């Protein structure tokens, strides 16, 4: 019986990426993401302008020409590491949102997995190997000139024949057992001829999976970067381009009014300008004279977390910070306490501030966009037993208000450029003394407890990931901040004003 089950388990699969693993068969929006995130608004607009030409080429069966045109416009003049950065930090989130779970169940049931794509391999390889556990990724290869710039051309004159030969080279001794692909004349018509069994997408929900130990879902995307919230399909891209000038004006108005008006006016002004702040739970009263302040322990979703908390409490609450830019400190309507990451020095700073009044701290140390909480530092638990957990969350429509690869000084601007930004603030009860270090509990136990109750409130999952893990995935570094001079920061804005001044 065991031997029969082993024989029944599929040994290998070759699967088409577009239209099979992904439900959407049109790669246009992924080239738009590369254009926007690796280059800027001008290239983004140029590619959108050519969409009608690309569509006509597709309709008249010049699919290779359409693909080459998209590839050229999206990549010419870029350096390959810039494309790799987008493929590592931006594209996986959008790919994952489009994965067909029924196809994944068949694909993941096999031992050896090969993914075939018509896009340049560099755009797909990281996602396929990290999240789909592919052994090999076959796609077109971008040509890089001797100066390190991508020419926009690919090495393959005929991608279909190239795919056929490379799949054949991978399976010299035995044919791949399963071929997954779209029906019709696509890149799949070449490699399917090499496979023993053909399965066409969409895969039926009741398909008889022979491997009962298959994985139900791919490895989730916890960290991702980039400014765009929605996948830039042609209609969405046109809407974004139309909105950007209005969004910049709206952001300037919101930031100006937020910095000059008193806190109690915020709920009224927010509604007039399209924003909303939803408050749940009962916030504590300000500390009496002579008493130490309350430490508000918040989940960290954006740079705006402490500012929104101050607006809700209708008083200025200083915030502990580490990696925010000097511009953000200047624009901040609340005081900031910059940490050094030297434990004793930071502990002294926090204690000193608590002796003066309330304080906000985000013990994750960095933001996370997905419904996960990163590991909480236990430092806050050592310094006070007056701890009030606060669950922060937000919703935006067009632009993300966080970045790991770009300049953080633009975070509040992008947040306020959204038409209807929404913030949710949920106050939990102050921790009882028996749940704090005053009762003998260890700091990391207190931190883990606070993380769990905040995750339960938001419906999130707890993780052991840290700031370093995030920056290694998204930016290829450990997240260490170097403080630049004003001139250096100005140069950085001019060169990386994402994506408006490229």
TrEMBL record:
<keyword id="KW-0443">Lipid metabolism</keyword>
<keyword id="KW-0472">Membrane</keyword>
<dbReference type="Pfam" id="PF01553">
    <property type="entry name" value="Acyltransferase"/>
</dbReference>
<keyword id="KW-0594">Phospholipid biosynthesis</keyword>
<comment type="similarity">
    <text>Belongs to the GPAT/DAPAT family.</text>
</comment>
<protein>
    <recommendedName>
        <fullName>Phospholipid/glycerol acyltransferase domain-containing protein</fullName>
    </recommendedName>
</protein>
<feature type="domain" description="Phospholipid/glycerol acyltransferase">
    <location>
        <begin position="294"/>
        <end position="395"/>
    </location>
</feature>
<dbReference type="InterPro" id="IPR002123">
    <property type="entry name" value="Plipid/glycerol_acylTrfase"/>
</dbReference>
<keyword id="KW-1133">Transmembrane helix</keyword>
<feature type="transmembrane region" description="Helical">
    <location>
        <begin position="41"/>
        <end position="60"/>
    </location>
</feature>
<feature type="transmembrane region" description="Helical">
    <location>
        <begin position="238"/>
        <end position="264"/>
    </location>
</feature>
<keyword id="KW-0012">Acyltransferase</keyword>
<keyword id="KW-0812">Transmembrane</keyword>
<dbReference type="InterPro" id="IPR056462">
    <property type="entry name" value="HAD_RAM2/GPAT1-8"/>
</dbReference>
<dbReference type="Pfam" id="PF23270">
    <property type="entry name" value="HAD_RAM2_N"/>
</dbReference>
<keyword id="KW-1208">Phospholipid metabolism</keyword>
<keyword id="KW-0444">Lipid biosynthesis</keyword>
<keyword id="KW-0808">Transferase</keyword>
């Amino acid at each position: 019986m065991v031997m029969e089950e082993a024989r029944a388990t599929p040994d290998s699969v070759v699967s088409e990426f577009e239209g099979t693993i992904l439900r959407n068969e049109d790669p246009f929006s992924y080239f738009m993401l590369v254009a926007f995130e690796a280059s800027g608004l001008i290239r983004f607009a140029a590619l959108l302008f050519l969409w009608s030409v690309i569509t006509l080429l597709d309709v008249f069966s010049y699919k290779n020409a359409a693909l080459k045109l998209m590839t050229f416009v999206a990549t010419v003049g870029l350096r390959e590491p810039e494309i790799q950065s987008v493929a590592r930090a931006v594209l996986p989130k959008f790919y994952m949102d489009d994965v067909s779970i029924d196809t994944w169940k068949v694909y993941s049931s096999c031992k050896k997995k090969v993914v075939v794509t018509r896009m340049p391999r560099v755009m797909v390889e990281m996602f396929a190997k990290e999240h789909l556990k592919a052994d090999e990724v076959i796609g077109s290869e971008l040509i890089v000139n001797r100066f390190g710039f991508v020419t926009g051309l690919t090495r393959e004159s005929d991608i279909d024949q190239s795919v056929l030969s490379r799949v054949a080279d991978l399976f010299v001794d035995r044919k791949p057992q399963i071929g997954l692909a779209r029906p019709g004349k696509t890149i799949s018509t070449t490699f399917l001829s090499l496979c023993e069994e053909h399965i066409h997408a969409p895969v039926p929900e009741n398909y008889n999976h022979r491997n009962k130990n298959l994985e139900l879902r791919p490895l989730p995307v916890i960290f991702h970067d980039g400014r765009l919230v929605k996948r830039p399909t042609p209609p969405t891209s046109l809407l974004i381009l139309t909105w950007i000038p209005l969004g910049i004006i709206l952001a300037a108005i919101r930031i100006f009014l937020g910095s000059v008006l008193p806190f109690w006016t915020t709920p009224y002004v927010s509604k007039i300008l399209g924003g909303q702040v939803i408050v749940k739970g009962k916030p504590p009263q300000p500390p009496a004279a002579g008493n130490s302040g309350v430490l508000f322990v918040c989940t960290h979703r954006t740079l705006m977390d402490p500012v929104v908390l101050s607006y809700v409490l209708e008083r200025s609450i200083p915030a502990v910070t580490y990696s925010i830019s000097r511009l953000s400190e200047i624009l901040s309507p609340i005081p900031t306490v910059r940490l050094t990451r030297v434990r004793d020095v930071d502990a002294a700073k926090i204690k000193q501030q608590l002796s003066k009044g309330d304080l906000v701290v985000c013990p994750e140390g960095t933001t996370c966009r997905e419904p996960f909480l990163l590991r909480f530092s236990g430092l806050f638990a050592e310094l006070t037993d007056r701890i009030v957990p606060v669950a922060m969350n937000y919703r935006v429509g067009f632009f993300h208000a966080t970045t790991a690869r770009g300049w953080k000084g633009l975070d509040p601007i992008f947040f306020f450029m959204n038409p209807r930004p929404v913030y949710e603030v949920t106050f939990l009860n102050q921790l009882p003394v028996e749940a704090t270090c005053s009762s003998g509990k260890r700091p990391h136990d207190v931190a883990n407890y606070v993380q769990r109750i905040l995750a339960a409130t938001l419906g999130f999952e707890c993780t052991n990931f840290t700031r370093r893990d995030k920056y290694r995935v998204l930016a290829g570094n450990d997240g260490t901040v170097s403080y630049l001079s004003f001139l250096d920061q100005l140069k950085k804005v001019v060169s990386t004003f994402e994506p408006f001044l490229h």
